[in-house]
């Protein structure tokens, strides 16, 4: 197996040590609030979460102190608004999900249509000739790409197409199976959002942190340090093609895993230790035919890691796909969410396989996340002001460069410059 050994130079990056300041500084966090998350396109949900007209969901973007009301209005149009009443700036929708023909503020019954326009004001003559056309919900820029709903909190944002650039074109139209039935994990972690994301941006750690879970299924004699097969960079976005151990065989003492991994017609294998996920193989095959999947045709391919800047991962594998999202809460605090997309089980056997898959996935990420909190505490000690990153950690370096570029740029155009 041949491995690329110059991902860092391919991405136009230097190899110097990287400061930990952006992981621990309150001042830097404030710049990220305003100039990064306040100007970048952010994934807020999927269209399947609003299957019908009048459906809505409510999502938090804590770093921007925003709560977003996502609504599917008449004719199926998806719109996003700040969940703030024009009267006394109260929260309007209190449920996290539901269906409504109109949005009514519980404080004084101001009523809004699904398109955000103000429909009614109780005792309107007392409001000194107020013009309802000026008092609708504050709209948030909204676009949809590959079924993902994006928002941009900037008043005059760049288009999503221009923001995603060639990276968006590369993945355009990919079939993402089981998008309506995610299995969701979330946690509040005592670590900076970038530190949490770093742990899912390289496979150099797999042999060390995961020796009893997936270590042997990733590392091998020809790839003892978990190097990626390929990496690609597109503006602030990037991707890696990850390979595993092609000779991996389940040990005899892992009887439950062996049972869950035994071949069943129409089942697909996942990336975590070759454990069957209970996913429909025909749907997985449809995803795999997309030209972007395993573009390098790597032997022993495990998964593609696709990062949409600044905080969203789409992982594609032989067992389907999942996503990670990393929401900053404070310099040393993060809300992490992962969604594993799998079909509804149609038999006891499929349910068993899925339960095993999700439990094993959780076991693996707990190993990652516990380590991240230890790392954050160590960085905050000030003992080591820099990190030495290897070529296998080029995605981390690439992300830090572009985060810093955005927080220092006065304009979005400057941040997007090559």
Describe the secondary-structure layout.
Elements: H1 7-10, E1 18-19, H2 21-24, H3 26-36, E2 42-46, E3 55-61, E4 66-72, E5 78-82, E6 97-99, E7 103-104, E8 111-112, E9 118-120, E10 139-145, E11 148-152, H4 160-171, E12 182-189, H5 193-198, H6 206-209, H7 215-218, E13 230-234, E14 237-243, H8 255-261, E15 267-269, E16 276-280, H9 281-288, E17 301-308, E18 312-317, E19 320-330, E20 333-341, H10 348-380, E21 386-387, H11 394-408, H12 412-416
Helix pairs in contact: 3-11, 8-10
Please characterize this protein's 3D structure:
The chain has 418 residues and is an alpha+beta fold. The protein folds into two domains: 7-37 and 166-416, Naphthalene 1,2-dioxygenase Alpha Subunit, Chain A, domain 1, CATH 3.90.380; 42-156, Rieske [2Fe-2S] iron-sulphur domain (Rieske Iron-sulfur Protein), CATH 2.102.10. 27% of the residues lie in helices and 27% in strands. It has twelve helices and 21 strands. It has helices spanning 7-10, 21-24, 26-36, 160-171, 193-198, 206-209, 215-218, 255-261, 281-288, 348-380, 394-408, 412-416, and strands at 18-19, 42-46, 55-61, 66-72, 78-82, 97-99, 103-104, 111-112, 118-120, 139-145, 148-152, 182-189, 230-234, 237-243, 267-269, 276-280, 301-308, 312-317, 320-330, 333-341, 386-387. The strands form five sheets. The chain has a seven-stranded antiparallel sheet, with no helix packed on it. Strand 18 and strand 19 form a beta hairpin. Helix 3 (26-36) crosses helix 11 (394-408) and helix 8 (255-261) packs across helix 10 (348-380).
